[in-house]
Amino acid sequence: MIKVLLTVILFLAAFGPRPAGSTAVFLVVSESATESTAQEQTELSLIRTMTELEGVDMIDFSVVPEPSQLSDVKSRVYIVPFYSQFKDISAPDWQKVGCGIASLAMLIDFYTEDSIESVDSLLGRGIATNAFLDSAGWTHQGLINLAARYNLTGQSVSLSHLGQAGALAELEAVVATGPVMVSVHYTFEPTNPIPHLAVVNGIKDGQVYYNDPAESTGGGVLPVDKFLRAWKQRYIAIRPA
After folding, report:
1. Rounded average pLDDT over 146-155
2. Whole-structure pTM over 0.90, yes or no?
3. pLDDT number for residue 136
4. Are 110 and 147 in contact (CB under 8 A)?
């Protein structure tokens, strides 16, 4: 689709052999111009015929990359729907261990057009399919199997064989393509023995952006170094099938 960036830009400076003080008009069009609509093509044709603009002696039709293509893809932070393991789960006993199901609900809502009925209903399906084990909590494979019911696929990945720098680099690359679920220590404190699951929405400028179902709202931000101390170097990537 043709996107004229800002507007027609007028440059009042000399350009090459043109007389000093003359004006050049630069029309900047996106790389996706070949996918433009008929209306847009007509508009562009009209602009191309405007060669007798008063005081204008050159029109430059330059093709430049989209702004998103110019930026670092790893800098993207996704807006992920938030669910609370305390507010959105009715049963008190399950609220305490509802991090995995609430995190999965966030990813299902992010990656599918139809939102889940409720976190409680998703919890019921998880319990019925043995995605939760008393000895281990929410299993990664159990959550992946549950996601498949929503036409999503998943992969559980351990990066424990890598150092922190290597693990972070791989996580950045994966999160650049979409939010993921991560295994961390509860409250992001490395000394906290309680296992926990949360969603990483993006990694940018030394900060990790996340949704923690144990917090009251989403959109949390954490320095990378603190995240690395709490992260168990495991993640679940949920994606459209």
Report:
1. 95
2. no
3. 84
4. no
d(CA 115, CA 122): 11
Residue from 131, 135, 74 nearest 105 by CA: 131
Q: Alpha-carbon distance 8 to 47, whole Å?
A: 10
Alpha carbons 107 and 153: distance in angstroms, whole number: 11
State the pLDDT at residue 66.
39
Beta bridge partners of 237: 155
Flag whether pLDDT at 74 surpasses 70.
Answer: no
**Strand partners for 181:** 199, 236
pLDDT at 141 over 60: yes
Mean of pLDDT values over 185-196: 96
SS3 letters for the chain?
CCCCCCCCEEECCCCCCCCCCCEEEEEEEEHHHHHCCHHHHHHHHHHHCCCCCCCEEEEEEEEECCHHHHCCHHHCECCCCCCCCCCCCCCHHHHCCCHHHHHHHHHHHHHCCCCCCCHHHHHHHHHHCCCEECCCEECHHHHHHHHHCCCEEEEEEECCCCCHHHHHHHHHHHHCCCCEEEEEEHHHCCCCCCEEEEEEEEEECCEEEEECCCCCCCCEEEEHHHHHHHEEEEEEEEEEC
Confidence band of 237 (pLDDT split at 50, 70, 90):
very high
Q: Are 138 and 197 in contact (CB under 8 A)?
A: yes
Point out which residues pair with 154 in neighbouring strands: 238
Question: Please, which residues bridge with residue 158 across strands?
Answer: 234
How high is the pLDDT of residue 135? 83
